[in-house]
Amino acid sequence: TAATGTYNLKITMYDSAGNTKTTTETDAVILTWPDLWIEKQGPETATTGECVTYILTFGNKGSVTAYDVKVFDQLPSDFTLIGSLTEGISPATITLTSSLFTIHYSLFTSSTSGTITLWGTIVTNPSTWTLTNKASISTTIGSETTYANNEATTTITVIAGQAATITLNAPCTVNADNGTTTVYAY
Asked: Percentages helix, strand, coil for the chain, rounded to the nearest 5?
């Protein structure tokens, strides 16, 4: 694996008569990588049956393009996903397997960012009163400047309450005001 630094390259050439010539070149090499990042927001408390919203903001702060980027959101088992909204860069695919929400992007150019809003309800009889939701971002091609900003977690303390009837129109409403918005319902 190469790193930024100064490297010497020694080249030896042979001609058909058996003569050799050797030359050494010194070059500075500067490697640049993408720097994927993710942040996650959610309410601190919520009542059972209540509609809650998680917001993931993510992007590439690096100076080069990141390819084959995936955003993963491991939703709490006591959270029922109703819908999602993507803003910014358009995803290649979106999948929901069990409670793992995965969004795949073909590429993130330098300074690209996006937002995913997920909304749903907390079940009326949760198995736990603390819902931890962890999201991450990664690329399978190449390296990154830093991995320290590739995960984000938020925790909701659940409060017992009356069950609510939820429809996509109310009380779970998502307002989008730009032309690159896609809404998905589940």
From this structure: 0, 60, 40
